[in-house]
Amino acid sequence: KVIGLSFRGSSNVEQLIAEATDSAFEAKVPYAPGGQVSKYFGQAFDKLWGNGLQAAMQSQISAHGDYSVYVTGHSLGGSLAALAAGQIVYLNMKPASGVYLYTFGEPRTGDQDFATAHDKQNMAASYRVTHMRDMVPHIPPEFMHYRHHATEVFYNDDMSANAKFTVCAGEEDDKCSNSYLDFSIDDHLHYYGHDVSGFGKNGCT
Q1: Which amino acids are annotated catalytic?
Q2: How does pLDDT run across 6-20, given as a tens digit for each residue?
Q3: What DSSP element (H or E) covers 134?
Q4: Which terminus has fewer CB within 10 Å in the chain: N or C?
C-alpha cells in the first residue's frame, strides 16, 4: 500500500555544470511551502510538477486514500524529491503523517528558511542518506546561504550489509558528512555497494 515517486539524478556533465552555475550565480527562487531554493532545482521541479506530475500524484492519492506516499531520489533527484514531498504536504494532497522522504547524496537545495519550513512539516520520515566523502551534499556551499534540511543518516564506510551509520538530527551536524574536509565523486556515485547509474540502467537488479 505504497505510492512511490522517484526522481533520477543528473544525466550528463552538461547538466551538472548547469546545476552548479544556476545555484552559484543565479538568484534563488521562491518555494511555496517556505523559503527560497536553487533556481535550477526550483525551475526543474516546477516544469515537472506543472506538466502532469501534480495531476498524476493527485489521481493516485485520490484513488488509494489509505496508501502511504514514498518519495525518493539520488543527487539532483534528491533535491527534486525533497521539493515534491514538501509540496504534497503543503497542498494537503496527503497528511504529513503519510509522507515518507528518503534522499541519497542530496545537494543543499535551498536556504535556511526553506530548511526550517521543511523540518516543520513533520513528515512521517525525512532522511538524507550520505556516504562518506560524497562531495555533492557539500554544494552549494553554506556561505552562499544554502542550508540542508534534517535529518541526515551518515555512512562512514562502504555501506555494505549491516554497516553502521550515524543519525544526525541537526541540519548541518559535524558528526556526519560535515566531519570531512576532503571530498570524493566516487562516494557520490556508489551507494549501498552499487554504482547508482548502472544499477538504475540495469533495472535496479
Answers
A1: 75, 134, 188
A2: 999 876 667 666 666
A3: none
A4: C
